[in-house]
Design goal:
Elements lengths: L8 E2 L3 E3 L8 E7 L12 E4 L9 E9 L2 E2 L7 E3 L2 E6 L17 E2 L10 E8 L6 E6 L8 E3 L7 E15 L3 E2 L4 E2 L41 E8 L4 E5 L18 E7 L1
Antiparallel strand pairs: 1-2, 2-6, 3-13, 4-11, 5-10, 5-13, 7-12, 8-9, 8-11, 13-14, 13-15, 16-17, 16-18
Length: 264
């Protein structure tokens, strides 16, 4: 069997390395137009191999990236509202207008990353849906487009890869008859050892309640914990030797970031 070396794909938008296989999907989530004109949008529509089973719980995961930005690219915006909607019938978009579909999952913040990020969510099927639509949902007034790269970008562009849909029983776990949209058809079961808990909020106001940000990693002792902005910029490491009780939030003015704890 030949060994294929997968290199980065150069597109007019960005350089991107496929997360799985040799290709990726991409969509122009939003595009700014002339003043007074609505945003243009693109959607990625995929059909399941069989309809979802009503009442069945599922876990859906996929990878998303903005790729490595190119100076010639008109992309560079980050936007909130990226999500997934499920439907029985195939949706029909009128021009570049927004689809009036209720999303099953939706990102609440403006997401931007040159690396692949894995998004995953669980849901119970309320209808025998056959189609999955990925894109930005909601009216223009509810969206927050922010400039991340470039001087005057006009679009937010996202690459997507490795969609997987798995039946899920809350009392048992994943079931073997997983339906993958793209990627491996096998699901590895890993038994967790120890507890992992990372708080998503804290209140460093000195009242003695939730004043410290303290990740709990069971028997694992963290060597460092770093705070990242939603665009991947580091605010600084948290060293246990300096903060034995946890982080109290100084030298950081907002609490709109994602947390990444590095342990060993």
């Amino acid at each position: 069997m030949e060994n294929w070396e997968v290199t980065s794909l150069k597109t007019p938008i960005a350089l991107i390395q496929p997360a799985e296989g040799r290709g990726v999907a991409g969509l122009m989530a939003i595009k700014r137009n002339s003043p007074g004109q609505p945003l243009s949008r693109e959607y990625l529509v995929m059909e399941f191999g069989s309809p979802l089973e009503v009442g069945q719980n599922y876990t859906l995961s996929f990878k998303v990236s903005n790729g490595e930005w190119l100076p010639t690219s008109t992309a560079g915006l980050a936007v909130n509202g990226l999500g997934i909607a499920l439907s029985v019938e195939q949706p029909i978009q009128m021009g570049g207008l927004a689809l009036a579909l209720p999303p099953t999952f939706q990102s609440s913040f403006a997401r931007y990353s040159a690396d692949w990020e894995t998004l995953s969510f669980s849901f119970e099927a309320s209808a025998p849906s056959r189609f999955m639509t990925v894109g930005v949902f909601g009216p223009d007034v509810s969206l927050e487009a922010e400039v991340v790269m470039g001087e005057n970008p006009t679009m937010a562009y996202y690459f997507l890869d490795d969609f997987q849909l798995n039946p899920f029983n809350p009392g048992i776990g994943f079931q073997p008859d997983a339906q993958d949209i793209k990627g491996s058809t096998e699901t590895d079961m890993v038994e967790e050892e120890g507890g992992l808990y990372v708080p998503n909020a804290f209140s460093p106001n000195g009242d003695g309640v939730n004043d410290y940000f303290v990740p709990e990693l069971g028997e694992v002792h963290p060597l460092s914990c770093e705070i990242y902005s939603r665009w991947g910029r580091t605010f600084g490491p948290i060293e246990p030797s300096r903060f034995p009780l946890g982080w109290i939030g100084f030298a950081w003015q907002t609490i709109e970031a994602r947390r990444l704890c590095l342990a060993s």
